[in-house]
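Convert to structure. Protein one:
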Amino acid sequence: MSKLISILGAGESGVGSAILAQKQGYDVWVSDYGTIKPQFKAELDEYGIAYEEGGHNEAKILSSVKIVKSPGIADTIPMVTRAVVEKIPVIGEIEFAAAYTTATLIGITGTNGKTTTTLLTYHLLEKAGLDVAMAGNVGISFAKQVALNDKDFYVLEISSFQLDGMHTVALDYAVLLNISPDHLDRYDSYQAYIESKFRINNNQSAEQKFIYCADDADVVNQLKHHTTKAQLIPFSYDGGPIEEGAWVADNQINIKLNKPKTEFHMPVNQLTIAGKHNTYNSMAASIIANSLLIRKENIRESLSDFKNVEHRLEFVGKVKGISFINDSKATNVNATWYALESAESPIIWIAGGVDKGNDYEALSPLVKAKVRMIVCLGKNNMKLHQAFRKDVDMMINAGSAQEAVDIAYGLGEKGETVLLSPACASFDLFDNYQDRGHQFKRAVRSL
């Protein structure tokens, strides 16, 4: 009987899945509808894995026993819908790789804060000497690590698209940080997106933990209609004390767990990552670290020496009294809300890009209170102008990161902050949010 497995998409996730599939004795075929990047071709060649680009060999793919689909590929493309009709299992990389490891799996999702919380959790575990790796939506593919250098623990940043490809995985720790409207160009409704996020908790047993934000109305509301056997561990900024979970009181993080029985306390001002949103991220990561009985001194030390991810509220520099902050990773409204909320000085806000069905209304009170001027960085800025023209003194369009920085610097005043926090995807003017952030930083350094 054929053991052909087809991998759709030849990026980090797809190539990692192909390497693992080969190791597990499958006949592997990689198919990418677009162009495969040279580094991934070289990797496939190194392992002698067959591939195609620029289209799909439908007959071959439909003769597979299983299809592993990269998260960027929508479930609605013809190749996938045909496979479903033919009753061929279509799964994601995380589903595929989880079957071949006995590691403790920590999954982290949320509209915002996933990367920071993943990096922080990894930092806490790695510094405590555990055999741990990061994967999922960050770093080297989960499948490749399972194939080549399996670990005892994996901290997985999991996007909604990755969750959609997970069917049987039961995470030992599932973290849901928050939910706000995002990717509504790919989901039929906001409710469908909420349900996608809650897949992080699917299949969890009574021995496993579901760690969630008790201050997020959409999370709490969905929990009323959602059944789970997992232990529920909430965290809250001002809803404490909590019988079991984490909360803030008197500017101190407090954690109390019953299984295993442990308590933890740490002043918020000792965290290296500032802002209310990062206190939430720190509480989620600390619940996991305490549950694993990492020494409290280790946890405190790790929380106080952690360095945050590039492009997330990253201080770039100060020129003639004007501060420049790179928050290019803020690709939706909620991420930008946190950026505006955490800023202390008057703001010149650089925003815009590819709108993903954004509703800007939630930002209006913060913009009125804190933003003097908006520089719109995108090909089509009409929606931004309509949303904020009454809230600020001035709105100006810019066609490049350099132009946006030059405008902001030219019109900026000492004591102000120029904040790049786009609330939009980057693909109209840039390769990705990293490219946008790097161009912004280069422009600032050229002043």
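Protein two, convert as well:
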Amino acid sequence: MAQLTLVQAINDALKVEMRRDKSVMVLGEDVGVDGGVFRATEGLLQEFGAGRIVDTPLAESGIVGAAIGLALNGMKPVAEIQFDGFMPPAFDHVVSHIGRVRWRSRGRFNVPMVIRAPYGGGIHAPEHHSESPEAYYAHTPGLKVVMPSGPYDAKGLLISAIRDPDPVIYLEPKKNYRAFREEVPENDYALPFGKANLLKEGSDITVISWGYMARLSLQAAEMLGEQGIGVEVIDLRTLVPLDINAILASVQKTGRCLIAQEAPQTCAFGSELMTLIQEKAFDSLRAPLGRISGFDITIPLYRLEEAYMPDAGRVIRKIKEILQFS
């Protein structure tokens, strides 16, 4: 076992798959010589060469378009978009093409490709660097959406994403890139999609989250545990496919539920979760469903960013509000 940060686990997963399968390649801005803006691809050019680690122009549409062509012709490209907010220039490819190829060709073709992008706020980045856009992709048929919260999951889920026969949007919480370390196996392992992770057991309320907010929710749960409140924390890991069975089992046990997400509230993925729980576990609920979100504004810069980002205090206050309902 190695003690790795999340960004080191991403790097390790790429090395594992590129050594195992010569059809795996990486392309994106600065992924070669510079090793990526966050150093997630550091050292790959030296080991695998310029034929498999491709520095591209600053053109997201070109990066994703090239990856589609490569995937259709036998390669397994991993396209890096430097920040999730740079994805819109490639959005036509994502929505109009990669999610539709299997359907459009009646199963004759598929696009085994991964689009990696760091997402979320908390690092005082400029505009277009701090969004949490997972709802766009979860809403698009044909895409799988993966959002790890820690190093162990990051490696195992990325290996699964690269091996998947369909396109995967892989969003990495950059606030967690170097926030902590975990034991990560040095060998090859793959975590299944559609299987949530129970971060903490509890009997009073369920908190459902993903990515950065999953670890923040765990922090809040541990603080409340010192006050005798049992908070169960579920890390979804993948939004598509979704582990609805784990969600329902927990909510049916606790009778109360909070959704914690970083994205703006309106039409966010958490709204879909609340609807599913209301439809499938209404008889088990002992209080109205709650949610913690970002605000319905463009994420502010620098001095106001921390005011925008949900924190453990907001999660704790909302949990206590739900628990007071009778």
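Residues 6-20 form the longest helix (15 residues). The mean pLDDT is 96.
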